[in-house]
Records
---
Amino acid sequence: MKNVPRIFIDLSLETGLRIPVEKDTFHYLNHVMRRNDCLCFNNGDEYIATLSPDGKQIIIGDKTEHKDPSNNIVLYFAPIKRLDDLLNMATQMGVAALQPVITERVTAQHINWNRMQKIIIEAAEQSNRNSVPKLLPEKKFSELDLKDMIFADERAAYGKDIPTSFHGATKILVGPEGGFSDTEFSALDAAGAKGISLGKTILRAELAAAISISRITE
């Protein structure tokens, strides 16, 4: 349903359910979009919905036939300064989960994860998904199970012959602005993790994440 506002509802949805309207949602529908209908989604399902006449509730109507375009990929990423862009793009590209990883060269500190969660929800609403990717608690690089991991390997920019795609992979790791350390490369190689080439240039981390996802979903 083109141009109809989409709202994520953090509840199990069903036809006939009445949900109190949050202040921000009412303002968005009534004053920004100037309409009393919307599409509500969660857990892979989407429903037609309307505001009640008094504007205090969202009434869940019929379930739509829209299929969730999301995939089953988990993006492992090092927090970066432009983290909002990375999470926005990854969500738009359909990832199922987002796993922050603290690597040796991470410089971004004091991430406001509540704000990041809002950015993820907004990206899901705008990108026609029926689900919001899970934002998982931070992990240290040393805590990762590197088996079957695909990772963005910047060594391709320095002449190493590396594949450009791994179809069917479900785990992909992207490093920070400064890249992986020699110790981390050694751990990845020793565990049998597979590097993927993003080309012959060094990319910003947020762009590297988007291209990495595309290389395993195309």
---
Amino acid sequence: MTRIASIQKISKTYKQGGKRIEVLNHLSMEVEKGETLAILGQSGSGKSTFLSLLAGLDHPDFGSICINGQNLANMKQEELARFRSENLGIVFQQYHLMSNLTALENVALPLELQHQKEVDARARKALEWVDLSPRLSHLPSELSGGECQRVALARAMVTKPSLILADEPSGNLDGKTGKEVMELLFKLCKENEQTLILVTHNHELSQLCDRSLFLRDGKLLNSP
């Protein structure tokens, strides 16, 4: 199999009230292309911090993060932004949609930032993937929570990135809606042959993944 991500001995600390809090401690991990991986851990264990490092939104104090053979630590902010837009799709718990843009415009935005062709047609197709074609002209305030997360999925998928990072994507949804959104996420990743790293506290969701790792005491373990 082809390795899509290699994380080697990364550490991350934060200052809090004059003290240094160690969140990640010489953490290492390998991820193969097409794999679905769940990262589990208690609240405050550093799951979201880890995902932000993988996304290049923050930097580790030590260690290396290589995605698609490229070391994020060697990139400047402009290079990181371009790399992120071309290689990563990110799905947040809070949706992070642009409130003044319609569903179609939100999904089209990554394509426009990449100066892609056929932006409108591709954005419409992505909304078809998530069964939202009838709602493409609606603003986020006119959509339900489940519909907003479907728009966020379409936005993350529209450029067909090789790696999808998802941070508690069903955390703000009721059980039934959350299950539907997660089933859709797994279905799209499989169809598009995308790798998925899912941060969750939900053990039932983690069982849908090829494997699970547990974040505890700053390290990733094979068992809780």
---
Amino acid sequence: MTARVIVNRVWMHHFGQGIVRTPSDFGYQGEPPTHPELLDYLATRFMQEGWSLKKLHKWIVMSATYRQSSDASQSVLKSDPENRLFARMNRRRLDLEQMRDSVLQVAGKLDLSAVGGKSVDLWNRPFSNRRSVYGFIERQNLPGLFRTFDFASPDSTNAKRYLTTVPQQALFMMNSPFAIEHSALVASTLPTLTKDEQVKALFQRVLLRNPTPTELANCSKFVSQAQPKSVIDDWSYGQGGVNADGSVEFNPLPVFLQGHYMAGKNMPDSVVGWVQLSALGGHPGNSKKSAAIRRWTSTITGKVNVFGSISHPSELGDGIVANVVSSRKGLLGRWSVRHATVSASIQSIEVQKGDTIDFIVELNESDGYDAFFWSPDIVSVGSNGSWSSRSEFAVPSGLPPTRLALLAQTLLMSNEFMFID
């Protein structure tokens, strides 16, 4: 029984379905094997060969059954639509780990030299190049991305992963920093050639084939179009302070790590201390000139209202000082907060397109225990425009991807790349 269960599991991982389709139930309530003699043969040979999983994998992948195409005639599809008899190969989507490793491989970043060791964060910048099998999994707090791609719950026993097709999967490949960054890496590794030659090289790298004449013509036309202008983000993140003349000195925080903008990869920074910003709040630096600054840049002309509250949760330390400063109107509000929560709402602020409103948190006198929560919302007066610092918190887009990088991203999210035939 043990050998038959193991053989069936290995077969299932290669074909998408086992010889017994209920891999955890070989009893009366489970499904009978579609090929009982095959199951018994593999189980017997598996035991005779010393229970070697390596040999078992080799037997399966070298078989004529495994080497079939997923294409099938209409008669085969009609007689066996669920492919229970394995008359063709099942077309299978890459699972989450396979997808990530494949993207890294195409981008030339997959590190196969590091074997064993500590688990790593797979999805936050700076992105690890290690294989996904070394990804850190917190059993009690599985990120939503894993569930989006049908990752099995680590909190219970699972015989197999269930397959879903939901919009969030495509949206991840369209919008995630991981997909955007590695698409740009793929494009950057292509030699400087003509547009047609670049398109051909990109198809060969991602899809391992040449483009058809129609694909080549359409993709070359797309790559030849004018590059979009730089993107201006509604929200940006920096450190600095308020000058004597009321202007704000704003220095962008250059590092984004584990959901925080920071001055450097090591905290505290040797120059500005603990200054950082997250979606919910942050921490000021070690002086009045290294305050944490969340900046909103207006894309409209009119009036806006600011809503939100500032919280300093610690009972220790001397608290923080929060400021709201408009590039057009100067200081709009100032609050000292210690172990309390205060409202920080301001009405009818005049703005023109390109104006900034800075939400500045600085230390009071000492720089200890100054963590704070402040995620303001901005709503335009008389229109439907609104901006949420919490829900719109993201890595700044800066320069948009090149046309070639956008084409690389399109190929990486195509069914041809995401599915195994």
